[in-house]
Design a protein that fits this description.
By secondary structure, this protein is an alpha+beta fold. It contains 6 helices and 5 strands; from the N terminus they run E-E-H-E-E-E-H-H-H-H-H. The chain folds into 2 domains: about 80 residues, Ubiquitin-like (UB roll) (Roll); about 80 residues, Orthogonal Bundle (DNA polymerase, domain 1). A 5-stranded mixed β-sheet has the order 2-1-5-3-4, with helices on both faces. Helix 3 crosses helix 6. The protein is globular.
């Protein structure tokens, strides 16, 4: 069954008609031409399709497009402002935190979510201080929180310091 929806992707309202079973990832890539989020496993296991949905990290391959109506969808491209790279884009370049680049948009979007979660005090499985108002983004904390984003090229050694640099710039203890 097709339905008319409007998705707000990277700050722009985009009307489209979709089958109610269409994933957010497929709607963005195939219908809207927004190709920043990548299709990796299509099962929510690799993180290549990670976007922010109202500021929270989600695997867009697991979200139905119809459920995203009325919410802000932000991709890695949408993190840039006025055509200028986001600080996370710059940190990934500075730390050579990518190789083939396929997973990089999902990694960057996820990293933005990680820093926001830590700033909000959301604990992870490795958080030591569960009563603090902010989480310190140690290397172990970053690895745990980014573990849903796979990199087949193994750029992990450079991704962690890139995320730590950005977190420090944002006032989150690393």
């Amino acid at each position: 069954m097709d339905t008319q929806i409007t998705l707000r992707v990277d700050g722009a309202d985009r009307p489209l008609t979709v089958d109610t079973r269409t994933s957010l990832l497929d709607a963005m890539r195939e219908r809207l031409g927004a190709t920043s989020a990548k299709k990796g496993c299509d099962h929510g296991q690799c993180g290549a399709c990670t976007v922010l949905l109202d500021g929270r990290r989600v695997n867009s391959c697991l979200v139905l497009a119809v459920t995203a109506q009325g919410q802000e969808v932000t991709t890695s491209d949408g993190l840039a402002v006025d055509g200028q790279p986001h600080a996370l884009h710059e940190a990934f370049v500075d730390h050579d935190a990518y190789q083939c680049g396929y997973c990089t948009p999902g990694q960057i979007t996820s990293a933005a979510g990680v820093v926001a979660e830590a700033r909000a005090g959301w604990p992870s499985a490795v958080t030591e201080d569960l009563v603090g108002d902010q989480v310190d983004l140690t290397d172990d904390e970053i690895r745990e929180r980014m573990s849903g984003n796979l990199c087949r090229c193994a750029a992990y050694a450079n991704i962690v310091p890139a995320v730590a640099e950005y977190a420090t710039e944002q006032g989150v203890r690393a």
